[in-house]
């Protein structure tokens, strides 16, 4: 099946897990499915039982990833801290300031091998939604490695998830309020090259990308949070809408407010729908025995929406 022909309907979605609290980010590996959890750590998600929480004390855990040693690096969006959770659950704060100033609204911690972390910061303001009224974008990406920290990209318009490409050559980022995906070449010394736009200049009016993941063929799957949607940017840079359950009036109201630089969290919250399978989707990860089950993170559901990919998708 061609990627351009693949579409999902509401009946194609299932659910996985229960009893989750704000599972904004989802991760899959040989140990199963993990999601960030409002109770202060990472939830090990079970199909038919309550989750097990690993870690404690993180205020509003958000984007996270796993190191080769089994530990997790976690962005605490509620308190502006970068944390490490050991395989046994011990939690310690790794960083909460840089250059004598608070980090700001940290979003996603990307473990790149055993010793490097790329940390996305949505805005230098303490709350991410402060960026909705700012005239000048001030999101940035921080590299933490060998005890050193450096800002390697700056002036981003609400930096969301950041991930290293499968070949290790690029750092990709969702630039949410700019409605686009971007990437930076990773240089041998750990610095980043110039920002490059991936796909179109814009994904559409008020099409806000939040999280993303690479499939086995190298396509980029995106969650569009305010449109309750899933997009794909293929290897040629073309965009495909796989699923969208948009509250059109609410999305347009948010778009108009964004134009005036006076949008609010309430504008985003209003973009939910009454019965749709996706409600403010924020991340996704491929897993299952064959790698074709997709788990979707969300800020409002107590479970993870899921769907299946066809065996052959080009």
Topology (elements, then pairings):
Elements: E1 14-16, E2 26-29, E3 32-37, E4 41-45, E5 52-54, E6 61-66, E7 72-76, E8 81-85, E9 91-95, E10 97-98, E11 101-102, E12 106-112, E13 116-121, E14 139-145, E15 148-156, E16 159-164, E17 170-175, E18 180-186, E19 192-198, E20 209-214, E21 220-224, E22 229-233, E23 239-244, H1 248-260, H2 265-269, E24 281-287, E25 293-298, E26 304-308
Antiparallel strand pairs: 1-26, 2-3, 3-4, 4-5, 6-7, 7-8, 8-9, 10-11, 12-13, 13-14, 14-15, 16-17, 17-18, 18-19, 20-21, 21-22, 22-23, 24-25, 25-26
How many helices? The count is 2
Going across the biggest sheet, name each strand in turn: 1-26-25-24
| Beta-strand content bin | 35-45%
User: Unreliable segments (pLDDT under 50, ≥5 consecutive)?
Assistant: none
Largest sheet: 4 strands, antiparallel
Distance between the termini: 6 Å
**Radius of gyration from the CA trace?**
18 Å
Shape: globular
Number of strands: 26
Question: Portion of residues in helices?
Answer: under 10%
N-to-C series of helices and strands: EEEEEEEEEEEEEEEEEEEEEEEHHEEE
Structural class: mainly beta
Could you characterize the architecture of this molecule?
The chain is mainly β and 314 residues long. Helix content is 6%, strand content 45%. It has helices spanning 248-260, 265-269, and strands at residues 14-16, 26-29, 32-37, 41-45, 52-54, 61-66, 72-76, 81-85, 91-95, 97-98, 101-102, 106-112, 116-121, 139-145, 148-156, 159-164, 170-175, 180-186, 192-198, 209-214, 220-224, 229-233, 239-244, 281-287, 293-298, 304-308. The strands form 7 sheets. Strands 1-26-25-24 form a 4-stranded antiparallel beta sheet, with no helix packed on it. β7 (72-76) and β8 (81-85) form a beta hairpin. The longest helix has 13 residues, at 248-260. The chain is globular.
